[in-house]
Write a structure and sequence with these properties.
Number of strands: 6
Structural class: mainly alpha
Distance between the termini: 114 Å
Number of helices: 29
Strand content: under 5%
Helix content: 40-55%
Length: about 850
């Protein structure tokens, strides 16, 4: 028999589905909003094709009621307690909680003022009382111990009878029944009188107690001796043992004053490391100043150079290790600054320069002995002029073939150590004698004439002692006003130097003045260091003044004081800086002198060579190039060329094309070595053979040093092109071997420099080749009705993000506006409800008041009727 289907179940499902379709609300076509698209794509399904604004608005309002409305109602309300104690939120052991809370309390109570006072904020107690209260020595007895009225009266308190009579029912209200009873005024006067009496008695008792206490204190020593006195014949008492040396030392150490805790001493390695870091930092700052890389003027790369660029700001980077120039207390350099050029050292320390001056390096021992005798007779080796001459003389003397730097140990002499010792001892004796003859204190001069009176007719040693004691007696550390006085003294010293070297006609006077300046130089340097700003301004004003005087007569070399001031600039300031407020104007000043001043006399040539040597000293570290120096040295070589009337050799002004003042017409006697350049050459009037040979020799030495200094420049061959042309026309047959050797050295080194120089031609910067477009896939974009800009991938991605940000921003603003409108409706509804309740309350109050008034009127009417 076949199984029948469950017809009842099928009928129930159909019925439920039918009822559901009947209950579904049919959408009103007027409430449906159709979202149109600009470009209809076939087969593309959209989620938001049809919209229901009313339904969406109702859903949004309902959502805001559950979220925003609840937040608005709970605004500024807290319905939950939070346990914010330390350690309560996490699972922390009880001991850790206690420690953390104690640490927090101590950290909160910690104050900056009590950082070094440990446990200063804790209050120590003893039996419930603080130590400060216990140490007051007050009488701790209570008031209950004094029961008697007499004791109370003694203690200054009122008795019980008086209080009962006056305060509790006594006084005016008391009826004694007796005649002559006291009035209230009399009672008050009696009260005041008794109070004063009790205070006086109390004061007397206190004074008596203090007197007895002081008497007991004075007699306490006698009582102590009686109490602590023991029987000397007590056999049980053992004698005290004698203290040994160890016990004595231990007690001394126990009671010895202890010093406070300080920082530990640094080890030698740490000191050396810090000194190395300090020197490296100073060297880095000096190199940055030399290259012009400062904070105010950073340079990220090379600037564009045009064809007519004069290289005014051209910087040469050198791989040669530079040193930091420092000075000790005596004004001498602590670091030996040396530029090794051609095996010679430029800018040595004063001791090495003095060794150069006092011990000349010659080819034979006979020549050394002769020059030593001449120097001993002259007696002016220590002068500032000879210091500069030492730099020139090191160029004019012969040198070994090894070309090692000349040092004090390598200079041959009979006994240089003995000679240096004798010189130092003689100078020491002279200074001691001058120190004993002069007073020990000097006042700072208020005017320049007072300084001249103090230094007038004084020896160099006396003047050195005077200047030294002036600085020590008026040091800025003694008084702040001394700093201005020392600055004025520095200005007077510059004026004194100017007067020493102005209008000098005698070589001996000039030599003595240079020696005096060399003696005073350490103290002048110390004076400049005490007030650096004043020294800077004073020297700058002097340079400006001398330059203005020079501009009035620009065709003539200025006086010797200008050379001295230019030398002082190299001693006081750093000459390797890229730009300097004083050194840079001095560069320009020297360049103008070499370019415009006419060369007529031997002293003009000596002056120009001195300036060239200063330029070499200025540029020994920075490796800069001053064109006028090479031009001047080329002009000196041109003056040594024999001229013919037919052929004119061109030369750069101020030199004349037909000048032959330095031409040597006879063979120079080799038995007489050429005299070195000294102070006398600055006042030379005639062209002697010795002067001509010495001048040419010094010129060749300077050219060799400039060639070594400028060999890293790409235009080094062009710089010395005129020099090479002039040297080829000078006949060297009349000159000594010393000059021929320098001549040959320059020619060989210049030829080698020309052969090794490789010019790099200027070429355009190579650009990266572009890839061929044929290898890139050609992608055709589908036109979507929008205009897209042709831009890179990064820009397109950024534009996409900006569009998305703008879209999200607009949506956020729209939602904020709807939230604000919703909250506005809620507030209006609340206000309307509040006003409605208030109105109903007012009406109810008026109604109750009317009922009360009616009842009151009814009562009034009943009263009137009864009457």
């Amino acid at each position: 028999m076949a199984k029948t289907k469950n017809r009842k179940r099928i009928s129930v499902e159909k019925i439920q589905k039918k009822r559901q379709n009947q209950t579904e609300k049919k959408l009103n076509p007027f409430e449906v909003h159709i979202n149109k698209e600009k470009m209809r794509v076939l087969g593309k399904k959209l989620k938001n094709e049809k919209g229901l604004p009313g339904v969406s608005r109702a859903k949004a309002i309902q959502k805001r009621k559950h979220t925003l409305l609840n937040e608005y109602k709970l605004q500024h309300k807290v319905n939950k307690f939070m346990d914010k104690r330390i350690g309560e939120r996490g699972q922390v052991p009880q001991e850790d909680k206690i420690m953390a809370r104690f640490a927090a309390v101590r950290a909160k109570a910690h104050n900056r003022k009590s950082i070094f006072n440990l446990a200063d904020d804790e209050v120590l107690t003893h039996r419930g009382q603080t130590l400060s209260e216990i140490e007051k020595f007050d009488d701790p007895r209570s008031e209950d111990e004094d029961d008697d009225d007499d004791d109370k009266r003694k203690n200054g308190r009122l008795d019980a009878n008086f209080v009962e009579e006056v305060h509790f029912g006594g006084g005016v209200l008391t009826s004694t029944g007796q005649e002559g009873a006291k009035t209230h005024k009399q009672l008050i006067e009696q009260l005041i009188e008794e109070s004063k009496k009790r205070k006086a008695e109390k004061q007397k008792i206190k004074e008596a107690t203090l007197e007895l206490t002081e008497k007991l204190d004075t007699e306490w020593k006698d009582l102590v001796q009686l109490v602590s006195k023991k029987d000397k014949k007590d056999a049980s008492e053992e004698p005290k043992p004698n203290l040994d040396d160890y016990d004595k030392v231990m007690r001394e150490l126990r009671f010895e004053a202890r010093g406070t805790v300080s920082d530990r001493l640094k080890t030698e390695d740490e000191i050396a490391k810090e000194e190395k870091e300090r020197l490296e930092k100073l060297e880095q700052e000096r190199l940055e100043r030399m290259r012009g890389f400062t904070e105010n003027n950073p340079k990220s790369g090379p600037n564009h150079r045009s064809a007519d660029d004069l290289d005014d700001d051209f910087v040469i980077e050198s791989d040669v290790e530079d040193n930091v120039l420092t000075y000790d207390e005596e004004g001498k350099s602590n670091v030996k600054i040396r530029a090794e050029i051609n095996g010679k050292s430029i800018g040595d320390s004063e001791e090495e320069v003095e060794a150069h001056v006092s011990n000349n390096l010659e080819e034979s021992d006979d020549e050394v002995e002769e020059e030593q005798e001449e120097e001993e007779e002259s007696g002016s080796e220590d002068s500032l002029a000879d210091l500069k001459e030492g730099e020139e003389d090191s160029n004019s003397e012969s040198e070994p073939e090894t070309k090692e730097p000349i040092t004090k140990d390598k200079i041959p002499s009979k006994n240089p150590e003995k000679k240096d010792k004798e010189i130092s001892e003689s100078e020491k004796k002279e200074l001691e004698k001058a120190g004993n003859e002069l007073p020990f204190t000097f006042q700072l001069p208020e005017i320049y004439e007072s300084l001249m009176e103090t230094l007038q007719n004084k020896s160099p040693a006396h003047q050195k002692i005077i200047l030294e004691r002036m600085i020590k007696c008026n040091h800025p550390s003694l008084s702040q006003a001394n700093k201005a006085g020392l600055g004025l003294l520095f200005a007077y010293i510059l004026q004194y130097i100017n007067d020493l070297f102005s209008d000098i006609e005698n070589a001996e006077v000039c030599r003595n003045n240079f020696k005096l300046l060399a003696t005073l130089m350490p103290h002048i340097f110390d004076l400049a260091q005490l007030n650096k700003e004043n020294a800077h301004n004073s020297i700058l004003e002097v340079i400006k003044e001398k330059h203005q005087e020079f501009r009035k007569k620009s065709k003539k070399y200025p006086g010797l004081e200008v050379l001295v001031f230019l030398k002082l600039v190299s001693l006081f300031f750093s000459t390797s800086d890229f730009r300097h407020q004083i050194v840079t104007p001095c560069f320009m000043f020297m360049e103008q002198m070499l370019r415009t001043c006419k060369v007529k006399e031997p002293k003009d040539i000596s002056y120009g060579l001195f300036v060239c040597t200063l330029v070499l000293e200025y540029t020994a570290l920075s490796k800069r190039f001053l064109p006028s120096t090479i031009t001047f040295l080329s002009g000196i070589l041109h003056m040594a060329i024999p001229k013919k009337s037919v052929k004119i050799i061109k030369v750069v002004p101020p030199f004349k094309p037909l000048c032959t003042d330095l031409v040597l017409t006879e063979t120079y006697n080799d038995s007489q070595p050429p005299q070195k350049f000294n102070v006398a050459n600055l006042l030379e009037q005639e062209f002697s053979d010795n002067f001509k040979v010495s001048c040419l020799h010094l010129t060749l030495k300077l050219l060799n040093e400039f060639r070594e200094n400028l060999q890293e420049l790409p235009s080094n061959v062009e710089i010395f092109a005129d020099v090479d042309k002039y040297l080829g026309q000078i006949s060297m047959e009349f000159y000594p071997d010393l000059v021929k050797r320098e001549y040959k050295e320059f020619c060989d080194s210049f030829s080698k420099m020309k052969s090794e120089r490789r010019l790099q031609h200027l070429v355009m910067e190579q650009k990266k080749p572009k890839a061929l477009r044929l290898y890139e896939p050609k992608i055709e974009e589908v036109y979507d009705g929008k205009r897209h800009k042709m831009q890179s991938k990064e820009k397109a991605e950024r534009a996409k993000l900006m569009h998305k940000l703008k879209k999200e921003t607009k949506g956020a603003i729209r939602e904020i506006r709807r939230d604000k409108s919703f909250l506005g409706r809620v507030k209006i509804t609340q206000q309307i409800q509040s006003d409605k309740e208030r109105t109903e309350k007012v009406k109810r109050i008026y109604s109750e008041a009317a009922n009360q008034q009616s009842e009151l009127n009814a009562l009034d009417r009943q009263k009137k009727r009864k009457k």
